[in-house]
Amino acid sequence: MRPEIRPAIRTENIRYAVRDIVVLAQEVARSGIPMLYLNIGDPNLYDFQTPAPIVEATYRAMLDNRNGYAPSSGLQTARDAIAKEAETNGIVNIHDIFVTTGASEGIDICLSALVDAGENVLLPTPGYPLYSAILHKLGAQENPYYLDESNGWQPNLADIASKIDAKTRAIVLINPNNPTGSVCSRETLGGVIELAKAHDLVIFADEIYDKLLFDRGHHTSLASLDADVPVITFNGLSKSYLAPGFRIGWGIVSGDRRRLASYIEAINKLLRARLSANHPEQFAIATALLGDHSHLEPAIEKLQRRRDITVEMLNAIDGISCVAPKGAFYAFPKLEVEGSDDEFVKGLLRETGVVVVPGSGFGQLPGTKHFRVVFLPPEQVLREAYQKIGEFMSRYR
What we know:
This protein is of the alpha/beta class. It has 12 helices and 15 strands. It has an 8-stranded mixed beta sheet with strand order 2-9-8-7-6-3-4-5, with helices on both faces. Strands 11-15-14 form a 3-stranded antiparallel beta sheet. Helix 7 links the parallel strand 6 (168-174) and strand 7 (202-206). The model has no long low-confidence stretch (mean pLDDT 96).
């Protein structure tokens, strides 16, 4: 018998909890249990629809045969629109803008252009697992810093400072945060900037949820607070514009040009090597950023009601506490149970059909246990799911 094909060692530690739980969910669904999915942050699976002008702009481009390769950095009209919105948000000293296949590809390219094997990047914990997956692929190290649950999940600046060493290259800030829904204060952003400047670090400002804010909150783009600190601001059409399947994102490089020149060229080498992002969908960028935003108000109204239901019903369950999210469409409730959060989530899924994601898949303060819920589903689905979680919890404890 010929030997089995050996996979690359770099894949051994790659996990993606959001999708991994789906394997078990599919198994449970085949048993006939009615399923309630609170695990995937895809608005279009529920009662949210991509704004018609965005769809029409893409459709027109396809009919006009804009179906070949785009420029490696993206359409100039799209980049101009991104620049205009960035300037409206107060970002100055912009030196490069590039369009990618979702913000995820931009993050991958920018980490690959910056970090060598053995070096590390500060990652928010809890945080989006894509970053750690990419670092494992690169042979680099994730350097977790903790968000403070007792302070509305704000980044703990003292913890960040204590984690920086000679091999630290960058700080990642997800704001609004996935999975907690927290929104950083200007004070917190300023503290992150000062640490980055003191230690010559690049800041990765992941702001993909910047328009999905509750309670009439305000989002401050980190790069708007300092013209010199090296920042790459990531955004895209997936969340605020309800078009995750378009796979259109972008990065904005700002800060001290002298320090950024070689890094920008390294990013562009990788951009050229992969040819281009999706072409027709790039025609929707200017329409989205500079056009009608009337879809946001009803979307936020729905999400805020669902956020309120989530917080109220989960906090009413003995053994569960939930900090109110300020943005995005996630909550990260805390569990007071024996055993692991992974065991709790799998037991919940097998017994009730409610699909959530264990907090360990996003990282958490050692000794704590959480799970992530997506409150995109309609209100009646959320109410049924939280009732089942409460009933399960009473038996589980």
